[in-house]
Amino acid sequence: MSKVIALCLDAGHGSNTPGRQSPFTGMKENEFNKAVVGYIKEYCNCNNMIFTDVSPEPTDIPLTTRTSRANSWYDDLKAKYSDLYCLYLSCHANAGGGTGTEIWVHHAAETETVKVAQSVLNEIVSLGLKNRGIKKGFIGNATADYAINRDTNMTSMLIEYAFFDTKSDASLLIDDNFRRQCAKATVKGICNYLGIPFTEFQTAPNAQIAERTANNTNADIKTKVANAISFLQDVYNR
Q1: Does the chain have fewer CB atoms within 10 Å around its N or its C terminus?
Q2: Domain with 78 in it: what CATH number?
Q3: Rounded to whole angstroms, how far apart are CA atoms 164 and 158?
Q4: Structural domain span for residue 143
């Protein structure tokens, strides 16, 4: 059996998160984050990756809930698949007046974590964004960590695609094609790291854009239903 590639998807923040809104476009950060996660799901399906969404709700989900959902899913996958690569992706738009893309990993991230993050970053910055690099730890504290990097049991990264409070970046973040390109670059970077071919999205997906698994168990059915509902919510909110 070939390696199973699993992505744990996290659209950062929520529609009700205070302060996460562009002063230039009025876009709430979570609008961008959810759109990118929605497109990543499409690319997962055409690249034979399975996925779960730990933040399908419209409101901000506590970080402890997100990481708990992720770890539970990961434990289930490890019990099912002997050859598994699982990656947690937390998708964000940045703030602070800069420009460009950066990716955050655990302060003590292993070499392979840095390599996959670099591969993803390389693809994203090829869209014309400034390369702000791979960063370890937490902003202003190199020995602390973001919760999704600290409290998850799988390889993880937090992607800051561009700045919603810088005019040039903010204009990109509201563009639907840019959002799709960010998703494509993310999945393509993962494929490049794993040494597998990347398949471009060709046709519109149907509502059953669910986790792909070999065994149709009750747990699989529940995951499929949850993923389908999440996808429909993403489409509705775009």
Answers
A1: N
A2: 3.40.630.40
A3: 16
A4: 4-237
